[in-house]
Amino acid sequence: HLSDLVRLRLSFNELTGEMPSDFFVRLDNLMLIQLHGNRIRGTIPNITWAAEKEWTKNNPSLRTNITYRSSFISDCGNPSDFRKTLICTNCTMCCNAQGDCHPQEKIDIKKKMSINSYRDFTLVFFACFVGLSVIVVLAMFRFDRYKNIHFSTKEKKQLSEKDHKYALNALGDDSVYQFFMGKSYFGWIISLAIVVFQTAMLYQFVIAAEVVVSDDKVDLQYNWRCPRDQVECDNTADLNWQG
Q1: pLDDT digit string (tens) for 117-173?
Q2: Burial of 95 by CB count in 10 Å (0-12 exposed, 13-18 middle, 19+ buried)?
Q3: If you ran DSSP here, which 8-state letter would residue 60 be given?
Q4: What count of Cα atoms within 13 Å lies in the side-chain half-sphere of residue 103?
Q5: Cβ count near 51 (within 10 Å)
Q6: Largest CB tally within 10 Å, which of 16, 34, 90, 191?
């Protein structure tokens, strides 16, 4: 009975065409699905398969080991042999037309924070940064008023000028942000324009950091190999935490 099937290895069989949407119906006991090395087009249907349920239930950390990464493989990587890359949202490993593969998984920061992309993380980070900055400014303003409550108007003016000079020295004479310390609207516009430009540049790096194996515009190096004569894939990268 197909319902008792545990391993499905159809890799390197020159299979062509699209997979029917009901392909995985009644295959709930599958622990291994390997479809790479074929010419399958379109979308591989989703499946809540046995390996996913078993590893997630018993030990979520096992989701990052080699056995799990090799459990659902297809040709969903880039470059692809087809105009549109094969879509497989459930696959744990995606291989490209050169036979090189890459794990399809969330990075640690995405898994720990339950976020979908670096874009979302950046928005949350900036929102927290702005909120914290507002709180600090308001706290400093209240503290400054409390500290100077016993000073005369002349003494308060002298202290304000002293603080102003200290802030300018801290920013630097050649920093465009010193315009924020002035009263010129033109200076504020220049400073804000620089901030917007720098944020836009940072946003480009954030977008480039996204690892989407189905996107042929992503500059991603595929370091895994899933050979014909073994079930598990091998990581061929020679980099480690030391470099």
Answers
A1: 677 777 888 889 889 989 988 887 788 777 767 777 777 777 777 777 777 677 666
A2: buried
A3: G
A4: 18
A5: 20
A6: 34
Query: How far lies 59's CA from each of 30, 51, 149, in Å?
Result: 18, 11, 60
Give yes or no for a contact between 96 and 80, defined as CB atoms under 8 angstroms apart.
yes
**How big is the CA angle at 140 (ends 138 and 144), to the nearest 5 degrees?**
120
Name residue 5's beta-bridge partners. none
Within 8 A by CB and 6+ apart from 100, the residues are 77, 222, 223, 224, 225
Helix (H, G, I), strand (E, B) or coil at 168: helix
Q: pTM, whole model, 2 decimals?
A: 0.60
Which residues does residue 94 pair with via DSSP β-bridges, in sequence order? Answer: 74, 102
Dihedral Cα 139, 143, 145, 146, nearest 10 deg:
140
All residue ranges of the chain with pLDDT < 50 are 62, 64
Rounded CA separation 218/231 (Å): 28
3-state secondary structure of 41: strand
Q: Which position has the token pair 């291994």? A: 32
Q: In 3D, which of 88, 119, 122 has the Cα closest to residue 105?
A: 88
Distances (CA, A) of 11 to 76, 103, 204, 226: 13, 17, 37, 10
Query: Facing residues of 33 across strands?
Result: 8, 72
